[in-house]
Amino acid sequence: MQKAIEVTNLCKRYSQEVLKNFSLSVNEGEMVVLLGESGCGKSTFIRILAGLENADSGSVCLNGISMDERIPPNKRNIALVYQEPVLWNHMPVWKNIAYGMAKKDKKVIYELMDALEIGGLEKRFPEEISGGQAKRVALARALAADKGILLLDEPLSNIDEKTKLKNLEYLVQNYKDRKTILYVTHSKMEADFLGCRQIRMDVRE
Ligand SMILES: Nc1ncnc2c1ncn2[C@@H]1O[C@H](COP(=O)(O)OP(=O)(O)OP(=O)(O)O)[C@@H](O)[C@H]1O
Q1: Which structural domain, as residue segments, surrounds residue 93?
Q2: Which residues form a coiled coil (predicted)?
Q3: Which of 14, 27, 42, 84 has the smallest set of CB atoms within 10 Å of its CB?
Q4: Does residue 42's CB lie within 6 angstroms of at least one atom of ligand 1?
């Protein structure tokens, strides 16, 4: 089976070493959780996969295609949820969600909003919603874009436990074993709830 994500011996150093020979392989349609303490390099790794940052050495292959700095984020067939929600402030919520959709289908948008418990916010602008709601709008936008690989960097942090559990349940029921997802979290509870393969990343001293 072709690997959706194949990362080999990735190294990245800022003033300190963050990634040292980090390797990871994810099958097509598999959901994998990347788990690790704050500062261990999870977001750095996601940024490298997405093409927002370059590794010092090592290789990244997405859907069988070798990635290098000449392949920009929008050519990688990925949808990304950043740790901090990044939304277009001049667009209402529904347009933010529709942004990456090849065919803007309002039914799909409203279904996603209901499923993620943000129904009714469609006409509001990002400055008129809470941080937790903005995170779920960003998640809805990534899901709606229907890309080959979903990179979710702490997509449900800062959300109350009850809503978080409902959102996790929705992801498990609708995306697990169907979509290639790399789900980053420092929460063991979230990781265990998703019930998929867990990769632990350690902080480098
Ligand atoms: N642009 C940068 N320049 C210098 N150091 C950086 C940069 N980005 C991240 N770092 C450092 O690299 C290490 C890993 O950061 P990263 O954000 O990848 O960790 P993380 O595991 O995602 O943490 P968290 O769970 O808190 O988001 C940290 O020590 C951080 O301070």
Answers
A1: 3-200
A2: none
A3: 14
A4: yes
